[in-house]
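BUG: 3D viewer hangs when loading the predicted structure for this chain

Environment: internal workstation, default settings.
Expected: structure renders.
Actual: progress bar stalls at 90%.

Input used:
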Amino acid sequence: MPRVFITGLGFITSIGNDAATVTRNLRELRHGFEVFPPFQKPEIPVKVIGTIKDFTTDSTDPEDWTFPAAYKIKRELLRTMAPNGLFAHCAMLQAVADAKLTEPDISNPETGLYAASAGSPYLLHYHNDRLNKLGVMRCSPLGIVASIAGTLNFNLIAAFKIQGSSCGFSSACASSAHALGFALDDLKLGRQKRMFVVGAEDGNVDAILPFAGMRTLSLQTDPNLASRPFDAGRDGFVGTGGGVAMVLETEEEVLRRGVKPYAEVLGWGQASDGWNVAISHPEGSGSAAAMTLALKASGVAPENVDYVNAHATSTLIGDVSEARALRSVFKDAAKRPAVSSTKALTGHGLSLAGAMESAFCALAIRDGFIPGNAHLVKVDPECEGLNLPRTTENTAPNIVIKNSSGFGGANVALVFKRVA
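Structure tokens produced before the viewer hung:
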């Protein structure tokens, strides 16, 4: 089967809006958390999120939004977007430039796009409320495509004139990891030569606050303590939004265009817990199965993995479940790979997480480092036995696994390799 490589990346994230800034903050373990003004009410127990800087998208009218002047987006495109669509569009423009793609490279039957987002609860609520209060004829005819779960792929496919495979994925926090896995399959099976994989979320009150009702968000008021994966003092995750775009291409296209890839995508695996609608299996059985399948598909032995970018969100149950899964897959304690969760820096991007953290893995592979575990002071006894570096290691990982998990016990593992 064809080999597949990552050739372009684009970032709008809480830790930076370009690859250079993101790389620096990953290396230096600088987080993107701030006290969020809309949450500073007595009735809201959550106070901190991972904020997106230099973008203002709190109006229901996209013409009121502000974003960096470097991005030129036509009015007719903006008016059908949710905030996550704006973040993703800007990330796509970066990825296209990074991969050195031309318009014919982008718009042809052999280039596709898979995307993941939860839609825009913010705009969906606004448009439904307007319909109920003012009547059908006072509703925007573009309200549906700007707000429902497929809004991200609708907008990107139209704006970038995508002609190949296209689909939106919805498996909660595993969504964009699923998108990447199925994009890899399309490329290896010869269905496409190039795939964009995009994840994005609004990252505003309506997207994040409902998770407080599930008792899954951190109640810390200090941004430096709010996200602490694997730490005994963790009390929940920190929400965030943004957008990340990746370009995947076959070896034939890489050679034809003469571009230098970030990393090779070797394989992937997925498995389900069959356990609970919202809680990971206590033994991490689904996550372990996904990693085992991914390693088998990639032809990699567990002892050859150098780094695992964990899903670990900083929740009490989820981190322990993943720790048990990791110990069961990497049985030899002396040969266990370094493990860290970059959600300690960014927060949890929900359906964006898989793509965002896969892109972080690509940066780490290319630039030769392994991000440490920020804010980890005292390891939860249930997470002991893992190789959890506290500081960034200036070592180039050769083989990297990215884990993702979502509601219903959906688990995905992706395997990446350094390009010699």
